[in-house]
Amino acid sequence: MIRRIVRDEATKEPLYRQVAHSIEQQIGRGVLRVGDKVPSVRAFRRHHRVSMSTALQAYFWLERNGYIEPRPRSGFYVRVPFKELIREPKYQGHEAVPTTVGTATIIHEVVQMAAHPAMIPFGAAFPGPGVLAAELLNRSLRKVVNRIPLHSVTYDLPEASEAFRRQIARHSLSHGCNFSPEEIVTTCGALEALNLCLRAAAKPEDVVAIETPTYFGVLQAIQSLGMRAVEIPTHPRNGMCLDKLENALRKHDIKACVVMPNCQNPMGYVVPEGRKKAFVELTNRRGIPVIEDDVYGDLAFEGRSRTLKSYDQQGLVLLCSSFSKVLAPGLRIGWVHAGRFRDEVEKLKYVTTIASPTLAQLAVAGCMQTGGYERYLRKLRGIFSDRVQTASVAVAQYFPEGTRMTRPRGGYMLWIELPTQVDGFCVYREALQKNVSIMPGTIFSPSGRFRNHIRLSCNQPWSEKLHLAVQTLGQICRNQIGS
Amino acid sequence: MIRRIVRDEATKEPLYRQVAHSIEQQIGRGVLRVGDKVPSVRAFRRHHRVSMSTALQAYFWLERNGYIEPRPRSGFYVRVPFKELIREPKYQGHEAVPTTVGTATIIHEVVQMAAHPAMIPFGAAFPGPGVLAAELLNRSLRKVVNRIPLHSVTYDLPEASEAFRRQIARHSLSHGCNFSPEEIVTTCGALEALNLCLRAAAKPEDVVAIETPTYFGVLQAIQSLGMRAVEIPTHPRNGMCLDKLENALRKHDIKACVVMPNCQNPMGYVVPEGRKKAFVELTNRRGIPVIEDDVYGDLAFEGRSRTLKSYDQQGLVLLCSSFSKVLAPGLRIGWVHAGRFRDEVEKLKYVTTIASPTLAQLAVAGCMQTGGYERYLRKLRGIFSDRVQTASVAVAQYFPEGTRMTRPRGGYMLWIELPTQVDGFCVYREALQKNVSIMPGTIFSPSGRFRNHIRLSCNQPWSEKLHLAVQTLGQICRNQIGS
To answer: Rounded to two decimals, what is the model's pTM?
Structure first.
């Protein structure tokens, strides 16, 4: 009987749990599938004739246990229940020691293979958005070309740049900030922003604190600038460990910190708000510049959450982002709010690439101005959440026992911890032979950690081909442990 | 009597000189004006009933004396006769000593003022091409957006990048090279290319040989990378002095050389071919990497001339260019053929900005593919030649006695040597008060040379306003010497 819950006073179960059970059952029976929308709380409440607060409690319980996830301004959707997923990767505490970064050659090869058109691209962090983004973007591009024919005749047309930076400022409310357009410096993508920030905050030989695992682009930038990295142990759900960071700050002369608190690459976590606040308090107190990489921030499945920048009291957080992960990487449009480093960053920008593409700035500003961008983001979050969960289920199905896996709260990466006997780099090599590209875990650490880890990028529309590729990967791992 | 030259056997003047005189007279009387097309050699010959060789001799004489200038595939055009222009700047030989570059703050201010919309922009190196370029470009952009809707969904779509690099390779024949597309690395403008080449060829503290005066962007790049510069005396018509360079190479541990042999900024010279060859022989022999900046190369008034790269036997010339000066700076599209430094440059590109704007690459490739680009270039050369000459005449008219000025063979810069009592920086400051932006000479040298020099950028359509601005500048200079 689904329509009317029998209010069984004899059981110990509270009422909200009993009504939640009805949805749990529907999911279990396959009536509701992953990605389906569940009834609104209002409808659910009417249906079961319970109070609003009971209905809300039921939904919270379902969410806590991974049955459903909220998508802002769109309602709740069915997701893969946590209990059906394999465990999360272990947190690895370790001593934080400065390292000279030297993995660039391997990274270069891995990245090239990931982009190879013959590969099934679990390696690439692109192309994600695709057709949906192209439609939004091309509409805006056509408008710009027709209305502002002289769009590109100067370096970064002041009006162009202003239109773009005004939209960034407007959007900054969504992550808890309130920027002025003139505080923003536009860049050729977020990696340029990150390079400029590193150069503004530190010198060659200086030590920079990073998450581990961390996006390998950060490692390459640090290496190419002749700096050193110190890996701070990082929790797969909570981000960089504050105690370990504080210890490292005491022990080493750390000049800057690079972190990705929202939808981290590769672990997909969103650092809980309290920890974000504590992190900024700590680094503010010690006067350490924090370079915050927010390229996936708009892709948090449950909607935007705050940036570290929003807690910054001292202009010490340098917030970098771009439209490469959300709209189109070929645009080469990023930006940075560099706090007290603004002037230095702007000067460095001027002497390295002078300006950023004008047309792309105008087109992106056009997308953001109309509200089309917000609608698009809401769709995109749902799409990526579905893809990540579908891939998670396949991994759980085919990978050997002992495999662990993140439960990303945004973005489109899965970070997989394989049984210790399995070498991620060998998996990477063997997978290439079978035309599947993935990323080996070692490239996410300057000291060769994560030997038994791999990263899957789940930004492709799910297909039989991808399903088989996960099966292939699972088999490669099984072969390595002889199971 | 113009129709039929009296063949005066009594005068000592050879026949070609007598027929040339007819054109000289027409120019003198204002029948032919600066920028007008003169009759074709063929028509001229028929008209005067002389042999082809006499007609050719006459035209060569007119060209040598600055009455006319050839524009490839378009014929000869009237220019300002050399005798009506003031003298060229003096060549200044000096000791070449490595200098730490430290002028960036002033440069930053000057550049911002140059771009200020309220100014009459003799300072800015943009916007030049304008409407003509916008038409060509927007036609191409619309095609790309319609035909390749997914143009920007990856980092630098391999096909996109290939289409662009194929056109660069094709165009390389025009300057004496024969590139393969895969040898080219695309960049976000030529300044990025230049930065990457500097980083590939030298390290912080290393010494780099430069022209003097040199484009200040080179100085800023050298400074921001912590390198040092050594200024090699540079002739206003022949470029960097080879003897002085050889001496400097012997004396100092020079790691690279940055030069602009075609349409140099600010002096506008095109280094004679023999000297280009000798320059490359010298640097090849000594194993010195040469970073060749060719951003104005397509704008040589007499058509393309060879790049240093075309003489390079050892892969030691790193040729950088872009479409910022020729098409539109807002595109942020440049490229580099880095010879034996290719892989290193590509890796550095990857770790600083990953890729270059895809749409702009496709649009530029579209422009170049159809031949529209070559036609456009021919028009543009004529336009800039006229503007530079018109400005030259105005300078000769209004500036104080003792002023000297370059006779640019391409680009749109005029380099003016003022009487020694005049301070270019004071002229710059005073001119700003009157809403005229220029560039003071000192920012073109890391050691504060060219105190009595200024640069005028003549890329605007000539107007009464510009004419008055030159008059104002002349008056400011006169005031300084109390004349």
So the answer is: 0.90
